[in-house]
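Milestone M4 deliverable, item 7.
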Amino acid sequence: MCRSIKTLRPPFAEDVTDQDVRAAALQYVRKISGFRAPAAHNAAAFDQAVEEIARTTATLLDTLEVKGRRAG
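Output delivered:
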């Protein structure tokens, strides 16, 4: 699906930044919506989706366990 989104969990990525998480969320929303940049009337929905997905992604990374240790 989104082949350009890199894996953000250890051991693939040790230093994941908020920018990394937001970039992955933005790529996901672009892919799902079919818009690289939304029209003005869709901008709020697009931005809200990116922020919610970024928050959920951060929560996921913080709670994953990898080989008996916490990933985040």
